[in-house]
């Protein structure tokens, strides 16, 4: 039977260009050109989400772009009609022919794939198992290749082609204890290869093995040592949107979502009638006449319409709509929400909150559009992609992107903008702001290429509270903590600034995410809020956690009072990879008072 992984894994962490250890080999997931669908499956694989498509099309410069679920494959071992391709990588291995050196250490033969016979390695007429070497070379542009061991060991080009051995002089696996030795007598420590200033691995030649043969591109930056199983070997660049009613935002916003498709028929406008019979135009333009569509299109073309709102601005509008717009009596469609009456959640510790909305039906769509190595790229606090990041491509010619759609439920908590504004005016909050800003500035010095901006105090406060609520709610809602996800809304710019809220939701491709437990927990939100705030008053790592300084040497520069004992959650549940957190902005701590939003309430 062929090796199998879940469809969601192909989008969330193992897309094209990633390395994966399978039971019998190590492979690199191939580019989208080598993902194979049957004709029937391809028709069912298309995912419609105009809001997401319009942003991805603009980012990639592709007008006719589609979203597809990864191929399903089959459980029948005799039939492989749809699959995701993969290439054997790396091409160097270590044979398990342990041999003691004169000083008592163990060394093993370094073997290239060309030295194998039917996938097996023979030495002195004896067969030895092999394991993939754990070291490769890569660059921040996503390129990756095998290490040229001759160049590394001999310090440059050499005619020596004698066998090489990997020597481990300790049990810890530290790079300073791992050596590669040539039988000519020369050896080098892998810690030297990790030293970027030495440029021991040479310059990157732009290798893109996930795209197949002859896929190099110009590069020329220094290669860096990469441990293929390390957490910085692959960061998927993804964008997620929450599906909202097509009518949200008015006529111009409806048309904006499919403008790239309308561009194709702008010169022959009578074609629109036929185009509207298929998705996504059918759903997105519902309720508009052809004349209204083209009028809105012309306004967009002329620039008479305000610039497009951010992903989260659109979502916030739908979630905070007046009660009459939050849903009918019967839950249906991809989005259905109801306002929770204020008497059901009002309490002293709920001050600063303006409304609670129970989201009975929710659909999220996540698309993979590229990846990076060494440095992660994630959406900013408004849900938009980092434009400064150059991600590696998923295919030679992009015409579609892998995506997954998940359905579930959630709780939306809207905060009063006036209360947050008053909180930000406090002197203690401004002092804390400077401390967190200084930490970000130190982080920025080490990540100059990143376009990541400081999140701002409202976001950090709401983000920290979101994590506290995730932990508190997961104890009773029936979902594990890793099943819960967040959307933090701290919109201070754009067409309608001063929008603050938290959406906690769970969504999955199967039954998980649609069981009703999260909505039921929302009916007792004041109980969960009180438990969350009380748990934050004292961390099991205090006073160390509360005294953490973002500017201290070796510290977490994008965190204040935050650690695994209080705020950190599974990274799949956090939209900022557990950065921009500070418990002191939510409740008083043993080290800081006066900066908490819920000061004097708990």
Structure description:
By secondary structure, the protein is of the alpha+beta class. Among the domains are: 92-227, no CATH class; 311-326 and 333-383 and 403-585, no CATH class. The chain contains 16 helices and 25 strands. Helix 6 (250-256) packs across helix 10 (290-302) and helix 14 packs across helix 16 (525-536). The termini are far apart.
**CA-CA gap between termini:** 58 Å
Structural class: alpha+beta
The percent range for strand residues is 15-25%
Counting DSSP H or I runs of 4 or more residues, the number of helices is 16
Averaged pLDDT, please? 84
Tell me about the largest β-sheet.
8 strands, mixed
- Number-wise, the strands total 25
The value of Rg in angstroms is 27 Å
Provide the helix percentage. 10-25%
Low-pLDDT runs = none
Tell me, briefly, the overall form: globular
Summarize the structure.
By secondary structure, the chain is of the alpha+beta class. It is built from 16 helices and 25 strands. The strands form six sheets. Strands 4, 5, 20, 21, 22, 23, 24 and 25 form an eight-stranded mixed β-sheet that branches. Strands 8, 9, 10, 13, 16, 17 and 18 form a seven-stranded antiparallel β-sheet that branches. Strands 1-2-7 form a three-stranded antiparallel β-sheet, with no helix packed on it.
Write the layout of secondary structure elements.
Blueprint: H1 9-12, E1 19-21, E2 26-29, E3 35-36, H2 39-45, E4 46-47, H3 50-60, E5 66-68, E6 83-84, E7 86-88, E8 92-95, E9 99-100, E10 106-112, E11 121-123, E12 126-128, E13 130-132, E14 135-138, E15 144-145, H4 149-154, E16 164-168, E17 178-182, E18 187-189, H5 190-194, E19 224-227, E20 235-242, H6 250-256, H7 259-263, H8 272-275, H9 281-284, H10 290-302, H11 311-319, E21 336-340, E22 353-372, E23 400-415, H12 417-424, H13 427-446, H14 457-474, E24 484-491, E25 499-508, H15 517-522, H16 525-536
Parallel strand pairs: 5-23
Antiparallel strand pairs: 1-2, 2-7, 3-6, 4-5, 8-10, 8-13, 9-10, 10-16, 11-12, 14-15, 14-19, 16-17, 17-18, 20-22, 21-22, 22-23, 23-25, 24-25
Helix pairs in contact: 6-10, 14-16
